Amino acid sequence: MIVTNIEAVPGRAITEELGLVQGSTVRGKHIGKDIAAFFKGLVGGEIKGYSDLLEEGRAQAISRMRDHAQSLGADAIVNVRLTTSSITGGAAELMAYGTAVKLSQKDTTA
Description:
Layout: E1 2-3, E2 14-28, H1 31-43, H2 48-71, E3 76-88, E4 91-103
Parallel strand pairs: 1-3
Antiparallel strand pairs: 2-4, 3-4
């Protein structure tokens, strides 16, 4: 499945729009990561535990969005966007969304 943040797939024509697809996950902070973040905040720099937490969350949200698109019979998801929002002081939602589409089978640029 093609997943892109642009509005079209180069060399392929969109033949059908199947609608909005999305995937999300809510991730909570871990007490060990909070302690490490506190100490890292004192000296500055990347808080690797949180970076990893968000990276894993984005990957899961994208995977769930792909599953949603596959259930509709999509060939691709275009115009993909990612958002993050705070649920509480200790949890965040990560969401991926885009438009599921069917594509032509041949190169339309020739």
